[in-house]
Amino acid sequence: MGAKALPNSTQVPSLLPSALSVLLISPLSTQIANRTPPPLISALHHASAGSHLQWQPLLHLYILKSFSQQDRARTANTSSSIKTLESLFQETASQAFSCLQCRQATYYNHHMYNRYRALNHHSNMDNQLPPEVPVATEAVAPRPVNFSRTFYGIMFDAGSTGTRIHIYKFIQKDPVELPVLDNEMYHAVKPGLSAYADMPDVGGESIRQLLKVAKKTIPKEQWIQTPVVLKATAGLRLLPQEKAKALLNEVKEIFDDSPFFVPNNSVTIMNGTNEGVLAWVTVNFLTGHLYAKTRKTVGILDLGGGSTQITFLPRLKKTVLTAPSDYIAKINMFNSTFELYTHSYLGNGLIAARLATLGALGADGLDWKVFRSSCLPKKFREDWSFGGLTYKVSGIPDGFAGYKLCYQEILQVVKGIVHQPFEVKGSSIFYAFSYYYDRAVESGLIDGSRGGTVEVRDFKKRAKEVCNKMTKYRPISPFLCMDMTYITCLLKEGFGFKDSTVLQLTKKVNNVETSWALGAIFDHFHNLNIH
Ligand SMILES: Nc1ccn([C@@H]2O[C@H](COP(=O)(O)OP(=O)(O)O)[C@@H](O)[C@H]2O)c(=O)n1
Fold it and tell me: Keyword Magnesium, does the record have it (predicted)?
């Protein structure tokens, strides 16, 4: 089966702006007023304080599908989603206010006080729609003179293959409105910090470079109250402790010299559980699945360079009961606790898996040993660098190359290592990103600008083709056969997905990266208490 188009909720960008602007500019315009049930108008209008990224999939679905009078049920769902996304920010407000009370940071002062007021305004709204808001309210409502409309958060993702900055802009239009995510500014540099294990000061330059982007993006008067946080993943987890520490210290010094607000513990190595859970929070937030008592969520599959994560909300108790105890994590949101299946496999990221397949992971004699694999073109031989080390790698010149042999090699890296959750054979939807996405694009499975939906069997089919015609695909990457075979093997033999399992390959939703970073900024503003 070839690539399919994404469903509506992830195709929003091309269709939404015009439809959304109609609603935001004139929520009671005749057409909409005639066709939209009054409670929804109220809810949408109440929520219309900015461009409201998180409402977009909901609005999109509603506008495109619900203009006929038939869909009262869908309207009810939409309204409840709006309400529950508000709840997320109500909780944020509550947390922020406690920070205000403990005087942790000047940063929180006026934004958070206003959000606390919003919390009071919305208290006891469980199972209700937001209150009716007259159309003219936004134009004439009195506001405090210095009311600040926007605030920002900076999250650095120090990954094994690169360092990225995510600058999130939130808007709070009115003291009684809750803040919403307006947009994300994203920038990335390569290689990752771990490549500077022996020269942390040089590694620090990449952070300085990215901070310049933050200074350009965020208005000067906001700098002092904008938190800057860096979380490192597999690259630093795999380094010797003292080398990782030296890099983190370097970053902390750079942050301290910056004009931004540096909270406690702002530079850390994140654990694998949080990486998986926060990516789940991001994707479910962006796709409109995150609300109180939600059962209909999507799973996530993240394939990094050094580690890989799987996270989903089990529907069946058996999935929880049959999982190793440290594969279940709890997270608090909307006054309830979500019990997630999550695990991060360190050493099973795509690049680490290449090294393992080649027998090079942790090997000595790197200056003379040549690491060979039947997953590489026979005549290929090159020096290849990862994580600050250089490896001599090659195909097997007088041997065989191809899918079957390659699959057998790769099986050693997966079999018996990756746990198969009970429920994964069911019909849950999984969003897959990072290297799943990149390799699907490079091998021509999906379009790079739009993403797409594939089945697990599509990866297998394309892996066979790439491995059995290595010369054709060599200009794209000599590692493409190895990578595609690894992805196939990880999905099938590792997690135990069926050939027919559908994967939603997505890099961005409404122009926001599908990465743990957004979940992490939520976690910063409101401790989600992952345990
Ligand atoms: N915001 C992000 C972060 C990573 N990635 C991709 O994720 C892959 C590697 O992730 P990573 O370097 O963070 O690896 P880990 O440290 O998580 O193992 C690369 O393909 C990146 O381009 C992305 O597309 N967008």
Answer: yes
